Records
---
Amino acid sequence: MLELPVLAGTAPGPVATALPVMEQFYTIQGEGFNTGRAAYFIRLGGCDVGCVWCDVKESWDADAHPRQAVAALVAAAAAYPGRNVVITGGEPLMHDCGPLTRALQAAGFQTWIETSGAHPLSGRWDWICVSPKKFKAPRPDVLAHADELKIIVFNDSDFAWAEEHAALVPATTRLYLQPEWSRAARMTPALIDYVKAHPRWQVSLQTHKYLDIP
Ligand code: SF4
């Protein structure tokens, strides 16, 4: 379990006990290492990464999403039988995730994060998935804590980009290549060939989209 403080000079302010929430829902984690496991998703508002293919652009403006108290978020998650919570976004590390993750763990939850790694790491995490984006570089100090590196493959040049980032994570980090959804038909065959030739990587698919669940 990892806990890191908000780094000096980057504290997001005194309101971390309430966070902007775009949506929250109980579903199955569709991608990456924890694929297939039930989890409560909390999608925080706010992102400055700017991926052109982003499928949650409505998350970008944090002010567009009402703030919810940490206690209310924990209570909402606790209404379901699963005890895994995914904090995603947006870019969740634009906020101090410490109070929320500590409260979730105190209530018996495993805390998982999906982050681009572009902002300082805060919070107390059981699983850190870093999915770096070309539009805002990941921080080396976040990559150093990645349990999972998930590269979204949009075109053929992304395989070399994936290797560049694999060189920046610990040797124990799980490595995944995942086709960008709108390019899946085009890129999945190339991705399969790549993983067969470079077997330290694994294929990740957005199975929740194939299952038509959130
Ligand atoms: S980091 Fe995520 S939320 Fe932000 S622009 Fe990229 S895909 Fe969208």
---
Amino acid sequence: MRPFTYERATSAQDAAAKAAAMPGARFIAGGTNLLDLMKLEIETPGHLIDVNGLGMDQMVETPDGGLRIGALVRNTDLAADKRVRKDYGVLTRALVAGASGQLRNKATTAGNLLQRTRCPYFYDVNMPCNKRKPGSGCGAIGGFSRQLGVIGTSEACIATHPSDMAVAMRVLDASVETMRPDGTTRAIPIAEFHKLPGQTPQTETALEKGELIISVALPKPTGGTHIYRKVRDRASYAFALVSVAAVIGRDGKGAVALGGVAPKPWRVEEADALLPKGAQAVSDRLFAEATPREDNAFKIMLAKRTIASVIAEAKG
Ligand SMILES: Cc1cc2nc3c(=O)[nH]c(=O)nc-3n(C[C@H](O)[C@H](O)[C@H](O)COP(=O)(O)OP(=O)(O)OC[C@H]3O[C@@H](n4cnc5c(N)ncnc54)[C@H](O)[C@@H]3O)c2cc1C
Ligand code: SF4
């Protein structure tokens, strides 16, 4: 690990302003992803700004009947919150399907959204990786791609986003609330928060330099049946090969988002509209522009079967 300096921020704006002003500065929350990457020298920040003491660990109801989740709310606390369990069950289910109890006790809402890909070539500093070192090439393309993406990928990068929580946030139409270094705030719809790789896979989100996530807002609950189904190589403690987050009403209408298949939580609103027609129609639309590779083409059939199972469960 490279040497670095460390400080505790005194306010959200202080944190954002310092992160923008100091080259190589990074925020640290739970540290469960950033510290691993620092040990491997994949991330090499010269300065860490600890945002744990900023009071961003509260959950409050919003005036429009939704829920505002502080950026520092731990995954365990978010999953266990009574309001989340009652009105946003898909989020609780996605959270408890991720990582382990110990990790969820440390992992934060913002850190989870910003965790980096688990592409094995990204983690191997001896291999080329356009995300880790822009312009160096991609070890995964032409390599072993079983875990990697089948849709939304590019010729520069086929990595997937690993978060379970983010897939549930996407199906719930969450909004990421931030503070810029000048103290202004904005709300970024989760659909626009994570970026597709294109030719710049190193740019993973819509965040600007120094911009701090302060909270994530969920809209008013919509009711319906909430399901999160995660398919993985082991029964627990493994990232998704494919996951399906769904909120489906009694009339068969609703929304579906997928994890494990794309560089961001994958949802296509036109596919949602096809839900009453069944899994085949939904899957065909979700994967209409898919570019699978030999190793990972199985994910499309796996997703289709998982969607079918989820729709059947929602019908009761
Ligand atoms: C062994 C293992 C298994 C795992 N399994 C799963 C799994 O199955 N499913 C899953 O979804 N996840 C899994 N995870 C990932 C885990 O959920 C993430 O590491 C965790 O959510 C990251 O949160 P954190 O608070 O620790 O982030 P940190 O490591 O502190 O930060 C992550 C990134 O977010 C940035 N950041 C943090 N807070 C803010 C903020 N407020 N504003 C702007 N930037 C910020 C940091 O600068 C850093 O770049 C696993 C992790 C491990 C180590
Ligand atoms: S798929 Fe993306 S993250 Fe993986 S090696 Fe290629 S460029 Fe790097």
---
Amino acid sequence: MTLVEPQTDEYTAPDGWVRVCALDDLEVERGRAALLGGTQIALFLLHGPDGSAGRVHAVSNLDPYSHAHVISRGIVGTRQDVPTVASPMYKQVFDLRTGVCLDTQGKEPKSLHVWPVTVDAGHVLVRWDE
Ligand code: FES
């Protein structure tokens, strides 16, 4: 597992936000894991509408079905217009925007925790609620 560097000396995130990494640390449609206060989060940079870099989503790296920290290694895709990630373990598919499981593979519905993300001057910030 590759963890990104959470903080830098030269940048102070606004109140309530934590800098997770630089936008340049992320690859489009390749998840990265980051450790924030003992919690693993999975970051996903999606394609923009014109093929440019688009939005960043942050969800729990913990797969609620397998209880393994694997979501950052999941497969990014779409269902209709919904950006999704499929767990590499048992292939449940989650909405990256809400964390809701769209395909439970016959199991009980479980969701990923999601955190609001913004990008400020090339820094990826997560609104940290715990
Ligand atoms: S060792 Fe990094 S996700 Fe499992």
